[in-house]
């Protein structure tokens, strides 16, 4: 068994330090060590996007990043998106535009959408579809998700 490695990250605004095995995936660190279970595990191969988080403001699939690679990074998970009990505009859009059904993909989809809107305040429908193309939803057919992101862009 490999020796543990110390890491320090800022997670949802709070500095967190831990010792982890070098092979520990970031998604497992977030879920198991920090209890942030909103980041879902769907495939472990970067295919589905359920584990998408923000790393230094950019969307990243946490199932293919080692926790040690995130040492020193600023991480935002779905738990860190709402502010003082108020939904983030993308979360509100998913609520208002019925952008979810089972909800399994929703946290990752929201994180990808936040990154998209941080980069492009007024994306076209095609740009939205491209921006979430790394996230699979097996329930909705995507139109309501696109509408939710448009809602957030218009609110923003």
Explained architecture:
The protein has 156 residues and is α+β, with helices and mostly antiparallel strands. It has two domains: 75 residues, Beta-grasp domain (Ubiquitin-like (UB roll), Roll), CATH 3.10.20.30; 67 residues, [2Fe-2S]-binding domain (DNA polymerase, domain 1, Orthogonal Bundle). It is 32% helix and 16% strand. It has five helices and five strands, in the order ββαβββαααα. It has a five-stranded mixed β-sheet with strand order 2-1-5-3-4, with helices on one face. Strand 3 and strand 4 form a beta hairpin. Helix 2 packs across helix 5. It starts with a strand and ends with a helix.
Which terms summarize this structure?
156 residues, alpha+beta, Ubiquitin-like (UB roll), 16% strand
Number of domains: 2
Mean pLDDT: 96
Strand order of the largest sheet: 2-1-5-3-4
CATH class identity of the largest domain: Alpha Beta
Task: Report on the biggest sheet.
Answer: 5 strands, mixed
